[in-house]
Amino acid sequence: MNRNPLETIMGALVLLVAAVFLVFAYTTADLRQVKGYPLSASFTKVGGLTVGGEVRLAGIQIGSVTGQRLDPKTFEAVVDMSLLDSVRLPTDTRAVITSDGLLGGSYVKLIPGTDEAKLEPGDALRYTQDYQSLEDLVGEIIFLATQPAGASGGPN
């Protein structure tokens, strides 16, 4: 078979551009897990949270989800996280699983408390708020809208 040299050069060029794109995407995506100290939190439902997901404080990634497991006694989902060593949070910090927009994934949002004592490596966050899906919110709105007047227990 005779190959046209132009086809070979164009094929090599396409492969080179693809390799450059992959290197660029990998270096800018910041896909690595945050190394730091471990924390955990328990939730009744975690939605679409995945291992490798972000842990954010004030919108800035300060950690990542390192694992998920089911507590056999309480049947709650336990989320293991790793936080940057430079970020020491108060013991009354609250963890909320929230969504990153309609099409975005879930992440753990940390809301720092005011306690003087700080969380230590391996501690569990005591204050958590479960993931609330869009379907749950729509269901609540429909339920409230279909209630007869005065059925909510409020003033008539």
From TrEMBL:
InterPro entries membership: ABC_MlaD, Mce/MlaD, MlaD_Phospholipid_Transporter
A GO biological process held by the record: phospholipid transport
Domain annotation Mce/MlaD: ranges: 35-113
Bilayer-crossing regions: none
Name of protein: Outer membrane lipid asymmetry maintenance protein MlaD
Organism: Roseospira marina
